[in-house]
């Protein structure tokens, strides 16, 4: 028997000993890398080269990909540096590139070659232009070349919000539709935001609790602001019982284009009219939190237009719409 064969038999007959710990290529800085792919030797599906399975990496970031797939393993087994202490928000968002790893910042975004920082001062401008402070901090205001003045010049009118408020049954929806029709006949573009209509879509997830009423008015105020910015006469028809919420909507339009119309009709008149039968249900206890019955209505203190009943009778829709149109003409909203 030749010597090489004897040596192989001797090795085969040797009792098994303790196995050396596994060594993974990705734990070494000299391990081969293929740009844009993850390498995982623990997956049973080996490729034809025998080097392990390959999976597409959406961010082309080798370290982040390995940390994601093996996030339950110690950092030492991943070839990653020890975790760094958390940085303050002022440090900015870290940029992770395809093949270069991170720049010493937390792994928050794998953006390839796309920068994740904005020029200084943009966030301050966004805070000034937005009506409320958003919860998200990584959003920025983007200006467009065509502005409100350009749209108003095209429409030959000025955008504004006509906010009609009053008790249920005071004639808000009737006035809104009549006003919209009158403006349409004059060649002016208007749009009606009716409270009940909006609760079929935009606000269908809201009820009539105090907090839901606040959110309802906030949403409508933001939408009305957009319509006014588009150059339209936005006619918002809502009970909007709380003075603070109406003033918050007024504050969204700092250029004086918020026109509050108060239909000052008595509760007795509104309840006698009761076009929807809601007062009857509220008196029977079948509707809770109904404005004027078991929920307060806070009348405006400094509205632009106040329309009152005459001898216990509500004015006609055309008369009420005429008052609003006259005001809009005098203030220059119906021409450039």
From TrEMBL:
It is an enzyme of class 2 (transferase). Pathway: Sulfur metabolism; hydrogen sulfide biosynthesis; sulfite from sulfate: step 2/3. Its EC number is 2.7.1.25. It catalyses: adenosine 5'-phosphosulfate + ATP = 3'-phosphoadenylyl sulfate + ADP + H(+). Keywords: Amino-acid biosynthesis, ATP-binding, Cysteine biosynthesis, Kinase, Nucleotide-binding, Transferase. Pfam families: APS_kinase. One of its GO terms (cellular component) is cytoplasm. Residues 1-27, 109-129 are annotated as: Disordered. It comes from the Eukaryota. This is Adenylyl-sulfate kinase. Residues 111-127 have a biased composition (Basic and acidic residues). Catalyzes the synthesis of activated sulfate. GO terms for molecular function: adenylylsulfate kinase activity; ATP binding. The keyword Amino-acid biosynthesis applies. GO terms for biological process: cysteine biosynthetic process; hydrogen sulfide biosynthetic process; sulfate assimilation. Residues 158-308 form the APS kinase domain.
